[in-house]
Amino acid sequence: MVKRVFGFLNRVLWHGFYHRMGTMNRNFFFTVLLLSAVQLSAQRVVSFDELSVRLKTESDTLYLVNFWATWCAPCVAELPYFEALHEKYRDRPFKVLLVSLDYKSQVAKRVSPFIQANHIQSEVVVLSEKDPNRWLPKVSEEWTGAIPATLVFDKSRRVFLEQSFESLRDLELVLQPFLAP
Amino acid sequence: MKNVLLMLLAVVLLPAFSVLNTGYNIGDTAADFRLKNVDGQLYSLSDIKDAKGYVVVFTCNVCPYAKGYEQRIIDLHKQYAPQGYPVVAINPNDPAVQAGDSFEEMQKLAKAHSYPFLYLFDEKQEVYPLYGATKTPHVFLLDKNRVVKYVGAIDDSPEDAAGAEVHYLANAIEALKMGKDPEPAVTRAIGCGIKKKKS
Predict the structure, then answer these.
(1) Which pLDDT band holds residue A179 (cuts at 50, 70, 90)?
(2) Residue among A93, A32, A132, A119 at smallest CA distance from B188
(3) CB proximity B184 to A under 8 Å
(4) Which region among A39-43, A82-86, B183-187 has the lowest average model confidence (pLDDT)?
């Protein structure tokens, strides 16, 4: 009985609220909801085990994974190229994943504000894992540990680059063999 | 067309791969050098008397990982220099790329934090490529004949010194003291890429 009354009240209130908003406001309301959901997921802190399942695929999607940090100047300088590709290939089976190596204690202080201030649209996860010596070679045997570093893979090929990209063209060149029909 | 693209890709990739083939491997004899210390004097490894080995650490002023390890590097020197294994820190970065890594800033930092070890400036960027350092901090442990015995990380916990469980470098020094080969002899660590002079 109490439950039914509560449910009824809830519906009335919700509908009242919702109807009074109008289409424009309603869209705005949902955009805000959606954005906050995106923002929440944007600062997800993951362990290496959680990340590693995302560093391989059986699907037709091409993945572009960049290891970076807010304190790493060459990383920050090349982020716009990753963002540009995220935008350019949004209609393809293509996914950009930005893996931040900022310290976990810096997520709220630096990573989230950085993502917001720079309107980063690609998915960002923060890797929190001890002993890089254990997990670095699992990303690539070639990786000595410097960032930026970039991993490109689909279900059949893999390229790892411990370097920065000086231009969007440089980065696209790495993708070309994967995108060629 | 595809071939052209592959060739272009090869051109892009080659420099990246060549980086991996340079630098010292375990067992190589490392070159000595002559670099300017924060006290304005030039130093070589051979100037350090009674050394049984050398803890060569490529590090810098501003990298958060270098800063995170700064106190640990000081502590390592305080513990092991009296036993014959001094830290020799080298800043390999070009201050034109990263202003905070200038020689003057090195001097300020060394003074403010009372560095007990040599803090040298690889101003011509000739030493770090010889060693094969790619980032800061990046450690090369040499024996008294400058034979490379250990390369890599200081420990397994960059963010939290107290949380370190495996002290790779200290373990390697202990092995060297016992006349043994460190195990592991090579580890990997996250660090800030060395800031190369822009050509």
Answers:
(1) confident
(2) A132
(3) yes
(4) A39-43
Spatial contact of A48 and A129, defined as CB atoms under 8 Å apart: yes
Interface residue A98 vs chain B (CB under 8 A): no
Give me B134's structure tokens.
Answer: 């790619």
Sheet holding A149-153, edge to edge: A44-46, A123-127, A94-100, A62-68, A149-153, A158-161
> Can you give the pLDDT at residue B22?
73
Task: Out of B9, B168, B187, name the one closest to residue A177 (CB).
Answer: B9
What mean pLDDT do residues A131-146 have?
93
Type of residue found at A62: L
Query: Between 3.40.50.970, 3.30.70.1660, 3.40.50.720, 3.40.30.10, what CATH number should domain A44-179 receive?
Result: 3.40.30.10
Confidence of residue A30 (pLDDT cuts 50, 70, 90): low
- Domains of chain B (ranges; CATH) run 2-193 (3.40.30.10)
Structure tokens at B92: 């390999």
**Residue B88 burial class via C-beta count within 10 angstroms: exposed 0-12, middle 13-18, buried 19 and up:** buried
Is B148 a residue whose pLDDT tops 90? yes
Q: Which residues pair with B151 in a beta bridge?
A: B140, B186
Distance from CA of A27 to the nearest CA of B (A): 42
Are B152 and A133 within 8 A, CB to CB?
A: yes
Closest residue in B to A101 (Cα–Cα): B190
Across the interface, do B166 and A131 touch by the CB < 8 Å criterion? yes
pLDDT score of A24: 57
pLDDT at res. B194: 92
State the pLDDT at residue A4: 57
- CATH 3.40.30.10 residue ranges of chain A are 44-179
pLDDT tens for B77-101 read 999 999 999 999 999 999 999 999 9
